[in-house]
Design a protein that fits this description.
Layout lengths: L2 E3 L6 E3 L2 E3 L17 H14 L3 E3 L8 H13 L6 E6 L14 H15 L4 E6 L8 H13 L3 E7 L3 H13 L5 E5 L13 H8 L2 E2 L19 H5 L12 H14 L3 H10 L8 E2 L4 H9 L7 H8 L11
Parallel strand pairs: 3-4, 3-10, 4-5, 5-6, 6-7, 7-8, 8-9
Antiparallel strand pairs: 1-2
Helix pairs in contact: 1-10, 2-3, 3-4, 4-5, 8-9, 8-11
């Protein structure tokens, strides 16, 4: 496994991140496909075996039960000092001013709740799940800074917003001497490349790492076009990637994978990993084999002809996910 610094910090993360949205109580939240603790155990064990030390979750996943399962997995299969835990704040957990958003009140309440569920004194990376237009960015950045100063988070990151919003938050932090974001968890794959226009140049300029979510477009880039799974049928995000305009892209992945004799997922992930701003794609593995394929993608080097074949059919579209 390759490990690199996150956003120029001393935090070393594996180049594949284990996305934990698929773990939790399936009766909670909007994840009816979530794996309970027993079903998730083989994935955590394989992550430890492969050196995947970067585990990403959120307070909102499966009503908080994802954080609980992640916390117990850390204590069962590894050591707290050997794993990088990332979680998020911002999306609705419950009604009331402390239940959602990025106000000072909400951030302070939700970081403590996340730490309790995770069973740890700190998280390595605390990420805002979305931009909050109802809260002044100065208030949000000051509150996140105080979370870091209190030792409850080592670093902070952001996720899924317009580049101007991210720049505004970074500038507010710099102007007031507050902690700045070291990562951006943005949606990025062969079928969603809009962040190449402004977000990726901004990240490169500021030395911020990208942690792409949905790098396989909810599995659509890992199987022949039109072949669905039960999760895809029940996942509103997954249904975004079923457009006919994406068929040539999926078929290009399939052709290259067939020529190389490897699974499609390795080709699609290798392309994402080729972006110099990308630190670690967040892979929502629901089985050990998914992690095996993701780690194997680190050894795939696409040549110029293959890259052109993968990219040539892309058409501009609206960004999704925020």
């Amino acid at each position: 496994m390759q490990h690199i610094p996150l956003g120029g910090t001393d935090l070393k993360v594996s180049r594949i991140a284990l996305g934990c949205m698929g773990f939790g109580d399936p009766t909670q939240g909007v994840n009816p496909w979530a794996l309970d603790e027993q079903a998730a155990a083989p994935v955590f064990r394989r992550a430890v075996e492969l050196g995947v030390n970067f585990w990403d979750t959120a307070n909102v996943y499966a009503g908080g039960t994802s954080e609980e399962i992640v916390g117990r997995a850390v204590r069962t299969y590894t050591r707290r000092s050997d794993v990088v835990i990332a979680t998020k704040v911002g999306l609705p957990m419950h009604e009331g001013p402390e239940g959602s958003g990025l106000s000072r009140r909400a951030i302070f309440r939700q970081i403590d709740a996340s730490l309790t569920r995770l069973g740890t004194d700190y998280v390595d990376l605390y990420q805002i799940h979305r931009f909050d237009p109802a809260t002044p960015v100065e208030e949000t950045m000051e509150a996140l800074h105080e979370v870091v100063k209190a030792g409850k988070a080592r670093y902070i990151g952001a996720s899924s917003m317009w580049a101007w919003q991210f720049a505004k938050m970074q500038e507010a932090a710099a102007r007031n001497g507050h902690t700045r974001f070291v990562s951006m968890q943005n949606q990025y794959s062969l079928v969603q490349r809009e962040d190449e226009r402004e977000m990726f140049p901004l990240l490169a300029d500021q030395g911020v790492s990208s942690l792409p979510w949905c790098p396989l477009a909810k599995g659509h880039l890992a199987r022949p076009y039109g072949r669905s799974t039960s999760r895809t049928a029940n996942d509103p995000i997954g249904r975004r990637f079923a457009a006919a305009v994406d068929r040539p892209i999926v078929e290009a992945v399939q052709r290259i994978a067939a020529r190389r004799g490897v699974p499609m997922a390795r080709i699609a992930l290798a392309w994402v990993l080729g972006n110099p701003a990308v630190a670690a794609p967040v892979v929502g593995a629901t089985g050990p084999a998914h992690l095996d394929d993701a780690v194997a993608a680190l050894d795939v080097r696409l040549d110029e002809e293959e890259t052109r074949e993968l990219e040539s059919s892309y058409t501009p579209r609206l960004p999704t996910g925020f």
